[in-house]
Amino acid sequence: IAMNFANVGIPVKIVETKQEALDRGLSVIRKNYERTAQRGGITQDDVEKRMKLISGSLDMNSLKDVDLVIEAVFERMDIKKEVFAKLDAIAKPGAILATNTSGLNIDEIASATKRPQAVIGLHFFSPANVMKLLEVVRADHTSKEVIATSMKLARKIGKVAALVGVCPGFVGNRILRQRQVEAQELVLEGAM
To answer: Kind and range of the H or E element at 157?
Structure first.
């Protein structure tokens, strides 16, 4: 996710809970950029410029002045709500609090904050630096300004934004689920 923003010159701060995880994440980003440079997609100078835009921290308080936070923790509601309660206390007024959930109820996540109007889903498909689709998921209380900003930001980082509401699996995973159900039926009927 961070690479999408660094690619267009937007500084990014990654917050992790352990130094090993932060080091591993930054290493993966560098390797991805270097692989692209080896193929001729960007220059080595581009690699260094983009890496300088990405910083890391183990302190969630380092997010107090950012305009947008994208949470990407495990797909467990209790963990996401805990993170959003902390973000609500830390983030400046007007900051957008986004979740990268692939299907959890964003209204419930927003209930952990005092500013549900600032909460939205930004579901990046994996690998986030390659896949073009970005589900922008509006919750019951998400403000029109937050929706408009998220849609504009999606275009800026080169994504195809699909605005959806809160529902099981949003759009992408609902489609994939139905395809999987039908594929399993074919196998059960004897198709190879």
So the answer is: none
**123 in active site:** yes
Burial status of residue 163 (CB atoms within 10 A of its CB: 0-12, 13-18, 19 or more):
middle
- Alpha helix (H) residue ranges in the chain: 2-6, 19-38, 44-52, 77-90, 106-110, 144-156, 172-188
List the beta bridge partners of residue 70: 98
Pairing verdict, β 96-99 and 12-15: unpaired
- Asked if residue 33 lies in contact with residue 3, where contact means CB atoms within 8 angstroms, the answer is yes
Q: Which residues of 37-69 are buried (b: 16+ CB within 10 A; e: fewer)?
A: beeeebeeeebeebeebbebeeebeebeebebb
For residues 127 and 116, what is the distance between their CA atoms, to the nearest angstrom? 28
Task: Kindly give, in sequence order, each residue whose CB lies less than 8 Å from that of residue 95, ignoring residues fewer than 6 positions away.
Answer: 66, 67, 68, 69, 118
pLDDT in tens, 3-39: 999 999 999 999 999 999 999 999 999 999 999 999 9
Q: Catalytic residue among 50, 80, 123, 159, which?
A: 123
